[in-house]
Design brief:
The chain has 2 domains: 153 residues, Aspartate Aminotransferase, domain 1, CATH 3.90.1150; 275 residues, Aspartate Aminotransferase, domain 2 (3-Layer(aba) Sandwich), CATH 3.40.640. It has 17 helices and 15 strands. It has 440 residues and is α/β, with parallel strands linked by helices. A hairpin with a 2-residue loop joins strand 1 and strand 2.
Length: 440
């Protein structure tokens, strides 16, 4: 390649990035193996974020790499519109087997954003084929993140993701978020206070009437907004209210799926079964884009029973739904999780992780600490008049020290690959501590 093209940073309009800042001092990753990236200068960078919450089995895992190599040589692409290929069905079956029996059908997409929009469309269409076409309203939650499609940002509740894009979808309402620092600051694991916030759903139902509401969508653990953990009893209460009013409950498990909490999914971790689960990220260990929706049999059956024989039951899908190379990566990834017991490993490491995160209590500018499974959050006091700067400065200083962390607002979010060793947890948390001592 022409050197002027290879080194030209301008052409790429980078997502969720301060483009001008980055291009003035680029941070380029060129290799990855195990727990580490390598940058363009050859430095090893400890991955404290599993990429973007997705590389749960660590980087460059040979079984996944080889599965992708074999598949791309054998069958690089095949349509799944009126056609099929074996791996899509195998991947779907493996996914369904990871969840409780009612959740046993899989609709494939290519990302978490597409998974969310698919789930919302399926919810509205489900009520329509059952003769309840008035159920079109969708309910999300403040501070929720459900990707960047118009459906996802409509039910999402992060203002910066919404404000540039007009009125969004009509007929959307939002539950309050569950962050109660005045009651739950420095909680270890699930916080004690806030289950009553689920009762706000009753108020919204009364306002709009249940006959107009199709679905409620929440992240069991809100990730991208800064690791907000559901209060004890909160998810159970949401499930009760949705069942009472015939409303579908959707768990967005794009982050919490595939061992992040020490269980296959948050469904298993919390013992609450929704009507649909969205997934992506960890399904292929971040190797090939893939996502989807796992739904209850009764939802699938409603479409099968409503449509005349030999006609399409759901007018929705993507060119790459169930892509053969992505399916191969997913199968190899799920097999690797099982063979290495990575979900159980995460569960066993969780107490050590919790102690490490909470060792930062009392550190400079820390106003809250949160943890669950192998997820942690360090919330910082914002610099007056300069929101997000303190955390972003910490991100840059950690990078200089060879550690990759993630920030959202003035919160540092940590989520290492599930193969992390205790010594790497120590280094990750110690580096954050050092950075906080040096920060303004």
């Amino acid at each position: 390649m022409d050197g002027s093209l290879r080194n030209n940073l301008e052409a790429f309009f980078m997502p969720f990035t301060a483009n001008r800042q980055f291009k003035s001092a680029p941070r380029l990753l060129v290799e990855a193996e195990g727990m580490y990236f390598k940058d363009q200068a050859g430095r090893r960078i400890l991955d404290g974020t599993a990429g973007l919450w997705c590389v749960n089995a660590g980087h460059g895992r040979k079984p996944i790499v080889e599965a992708v190599q074999r598949q791309v040589a054998k069958l690089d692409y095949a349509p799944t519109f009126q056609m099929g290929h074996p791996l899509a069905f195998e991947a779907a079956a493996k996914l369904a087997a990871m969840l409780p029996a009612p959740l046993d059908h899989v609709f494939f997409s290519n990302s978490g954003s597409e998974a969310v929009d698919s789930a919302l469309k399926i919810a509205i269409a489900y009520h329509r084929v059952r003769g309840e076409g008035t159920r079109t309203r969708l309910i999300g939650r403040e501070r929720g993140y459900h990707g960047v499609g118009f459906g996802g940002i409509s039910v999402g509740g992060i203002s910066a993701n919404r404000k540039f894009f007009g009125p969004l979808l009509a007929g959307v309402d939002h539950l309050p978020h569950t962050h109660l620092p005045e009651k739950n600051a420095f909680s270890k694991g699930v916080p004690a206070h806030g289950a009553e916030l689920a009762d706000e759903l009753e108020r919204i139902v009364a306002l709009h009437d249940p006959s107009t509401i199709a679905a409620v969508i929440v992240e069991p653990v809100a990730g991208s907004t800064g690791v907000l953990i559901p209060p004890k009893g909160y998810l159970e209460r949401l499930r009760e209210i949705c069942t009472k009013h015939g409303i579908l409950l959707i768990f967005d498990e794009v982050i919490t799926g595939f061992g992040r909490l020490g269980s296959s999914f948050a469904v298993e971790h919390f013992g609450v079964v929704p009507d649909m689960v969205t997934f992506a990220k960890g399904v292929t260990n971040g190797t090939i884009p893939m996502g989807g929706v796992i739904l209850k049999r009764e939802i699938y059956d409603a479409f099968m029973e409503a449509a005349p024989e030999n006609t399409i039951e759901l007018f929705h899908g993507y060119t790459y739904s169930g892509h053969p190379v992505a399916a191969a990566a997913a199968i190899a990834t799920m097999d690797l999780y099982k063979e290495e017991g990575l979900f159980e490993r995460a569960r066993d490491l969780a107490p050590y992780w919790e102690a490490a995160i909470h060792s930062l209590k009392g550190a400079r500018n820390v106003i809250d600490l949160r943890n669950i499974g192998l997820v942690g959050a360090i919330e910082l006091e914002p610099i007056p008049g300069k929101p997000t700067k303190r955390a972003f400065d910490a991100f840059l200083k950690a990078w200089e020290k060879g550690v990759l962390i993630r920030t959202t607002g003035d919160i540092i979010a940590l989520s290492p690959p599930l193969i992390v060793e205790k010594k790497e947890i120590d280094r990750l948390v110690e580096t954050v501590g050092e950075v906080l001592k040096e920060a303004a």
